[in-house]
Amino acid sequence: MPVRPLVTYPDPRLKAPALPVTAFDAALRDLVTDLTDTMRAAPGIGITGPHMGVLQRVVVLELEPGAVGVYINPVLAFAAPERFRHAEGSVSMPGVTEEIERSASSASGSPAGSRSFSGPAERRPMPDGAARCRWWSPH
Questions:
Q1: Strand, coil or helix: what is 50?
Q2: pTM
């Protein structure tokens, strides 16, 4: 699938609330593929629909090469009280990094009735390091 253009700061779409995904269809699969390809080309370790101008709650993370995680309509279900500071950036702000304090670990969940491509969505631990990639926090 094609690498899509990125929305860059200060584009107002980056502050707009993303809408829940309601159709788990071929168009969503294509979006996930485009997000993955665009994230890798940026380069980055995470990307959301709004980073490409698509105001849907879709997150793709690749914290280790080849280990792509896809999160549809995620919510932050748990955040550890332990904190750490880490330099991070955004594909929408190329070349800009800032030291941010985040939870040391987290878990994602989905609103009641949400589903994944393969069935009902469920709470799952986030991979090590994913706590720094919390773009999916509800607006």
A1: helix
A2: 0.79
Q: Residue 32 is which amino acid?
A: V
Per-residue pLDDT tens listing for the chain (139 residues): 689 999 999 999 999 999 999 999 999 999 999 999 999 999 999 999 999 999 999 999 998 899 998 989 888 777 788 888 888 899 999 999 999 898 877 776 666 555 555 555 555 555 555 544 443 333 3
Q: What is the dihedral of CA 129, 89, 54, 112, to 10 degrees?
A: 30
Judge contact between 79 and 92, C-beta under 8 A.
Answer: no
How far is Cα 78 from Cα 18, in angstroms, rounded to an integer? 21
Measured CA to CA, the distance from residue 90 to residue 9 in angstroms comes to 10
Q: Compute the distance between CA of residue 133 and CA of residue 136 in angstroms, rounded to an integer.
A: 8
Tokens, residue 9: 């700061």
The CB-side HSE value for 95 (13 A sphere, CA atoms) comes to 1
In angstroms, what is the C-alpha Rg of the chain? 14
